Amino acid sequence: MTHTLSETIQGNRKLAFIARNWAAFFLLGFLILFSFTGKGFLSVTNFQNVGHLAVIAILMASAETFVIITSGIDLSIGFVMGFSSVTAGKIIQILYAAGGGISPGISIAIGIVIVLILSLIPGLVSGVLIARYKVPPFIATMGMWGITNGIALKICKGFPVATLPEVLTRIGNGYIIYIKPGGGISFFSLPHGVGNESIREYIRLIPYSFIFVGLILLVLWHLLRNTTFGQHTYAIGGNEEAAVRAGINVKLHLVKIYILSSFIAGLAGIFNVFQTGIGNFTPFGAMYELFAVSAVVIGGASLMGGKGSIFGSVIGVFLIAFLENGLLISGVVPFYRFIAVGLLLIIAVVIDQLFPDLL
Questions:
Q1: Sheet with 184-187, side-by-side order of all strands
Q2: Are 186 and 174 in contact, with CB atoms under 8 Å apart?
């Protein structure tokens, strides 16, 4: 029966298109529904706020996309992000407090470079354990999950790293265009002499975070879609033995995949510092990695490997983000939001099982 249903849908282009892009249609449906039930849901401000707050989730989901396509999983990305945020915050704090002619910009640049280098290490260790020693990805990355969390807590002693340059949040939460109704337009910053306490008087358009994540996504999309690296990633996830016979160095490629995942998580940690103005460790209950896995699966990837895309993962993130935002604005009790996300995840897996050759 399932086989017949799958063949019927494959034979109908419209049904096939809907089944292949069901998450996008769900997202569109939620946007229409919540536009009636939630006051202010369709406002530019709300959309920008959801997008700005979703940047970290988008980066995490992008990292997980590469791993899941190879039929792996990376449970460490949430705590790699926390480790990167704390370490970057600590380095910037020390250099900024030291003075000696070190400007805030130089302090921030040094912190970013060091942390991006350090963020490669968890992925390297996980990749070697998985590729060379055949440790299951769940176990290898869970071990790195604990190690990075412990190191982060050791560095910050359980408290956020504060007293950082104010320019961090001005960049991380800044907009390209500021419009004062009846006043004028300012680009890249508030007009001279206007303090943050007056920011509500301005219409703010296009957060810097959109430009940042847009550039990262463009690079990752190109890497996955148009390069040999991306082709090998899909090949390994589709059939690892066939990939080996085709001459692909599977072990080396898997190491690269986990290094890339860890590096993107490091970028998310750095953005967290810019967004919050502190070096913030990842709380246990945040579960960024599980949110990322959910978004990637909802976006069309298969935990069996061989399927997935950056665009689909972004759709998955926004589907969850707008679902939670819409329910919140509509006044729905918070725990129902968890139920809704759980149902979405189950629907995604069921669709993947019903139409394995379609998605």
A1: 184-187, 175-180, 203-207
A2: no
Amino acid at residue number 264: I
The model's pLDDT over 297-343, given as tens digits with 9 standing for 90+, comes to: 888 888 888 889 999 999 999 998 998 888 888 888 777 877 888 88
- Residue 175 has which token pair? 């907009």
What does DSSP say about strands 175-180 and 203-207: parallel, antiparallel, or unpaired?
antiparallel
Question: Is the Cβ–Cβ distance between 288 and 77 less than 8 Å?
Answer: yes
Q: Can you tell me the distance from the alpha carbon of 35 to that of 9, in angstroms, rounded to the nearest whole number?
A: 31
Coarse DSSP helix, strand, coil percentages of the chain, rounded to the nearest 5 percent = 70, 5, 25
Strand partners, 203: 179
185 Ramachandran zone, left/alpha/beta (phi>0; psi -120 to 50): beta
- DSSP character string of 84-139: HHHHHHHHHHHHHHH-TT--HHHHHHHHHHHHHHHTHHHHHHHHHHHHTT---HHH
Whole-angstrom distance, CA of residue 307 vs CA of residue 239: 12
Rounded CA-CA distance 35/43 in Å is: 9
**Rg of the chain, C-alpha, whole Å:** 22
Confidence of residue 80 (pLDDT cuts 50, 70, 90): very high
Q: Tell me the one-letter amino acid at 335.
A: F
Confidence of residue 243 (pLDDT cuts 50, 70, 90): very high
Token representation of residue 253: 């490629």
Average pLDDT over residues 153-169: 90
- State the DSSP code for 308: -
The CA distance from 107 to 334, in Å, is: 40
pLDDT in tens, 222-241: 999 999 999 999 999 999 99
Q: Are strands 184-187 and 203-207 parallel, antiparallel or unpaired?
A: unpaired
Residues 115 and 124: their CA atoms lie apart, in Å, by 15
Transcribe 1-28 into DSSP letters: -HHHHHHHHHH-HHHHHHHHTHHHHHHH
Q: Report the Cα 286 to chain-centroid distance in Å.
A: 13
Q: Which domains does the chain have, with CATH numbers?
A: 2-7+16-354 (1.10.3470)
